[in-house]
Design goal:
Layout: E1 15-23, E2 29-37, E3 43-49, H1 54-68
Antiparallel strand pairs: 1-2, 2-3
């Protein structure tokens, strides 16, 4: 399957986030949230929670930005949703 080129021309210009549900070895359901640099594909932050809430999203975004600096696209931030159960990077225009 061909991989789409990143939309960001420079590192830390645009981030992606993904949420994945997993079941741990002891049967506990968990949700993992990750923040990825769109240009480099570097995983900026990855953490598991019992449930990822809106508060967890904003807290992990701000924690990641404290470590790596806010992405340059932050001031004009818009939410762009991909298709569920599609694990590849999707075109996020518009």
């Amino acid at each position: 399957m061909p991989r789409h080129p990143p939309l960001a021309d420079q590192p830390n210009e645009l981030w992606q986030s993904d949420l994945t549900r997993i079941t741990l070895a002891d049967g506990t359901d968990s949700e993992v949230i990750g923040w990825i640099d769109d240009h480099s594909r570097y995983m900026l932050h990855l953490i598991a929670h019992l449930r990822v809430t809106g508060r967890v999203v904003t807290d992990t975004f701000n924690e990641t930005a404290t470590q790596h600096g806010y992405p340059t696209a932050t001031l004009g931030i818009t939410q762009k949703n991909g298709k569920p159960f599609k694990p590849t990077t999707q075109r996020k225009k518009g």
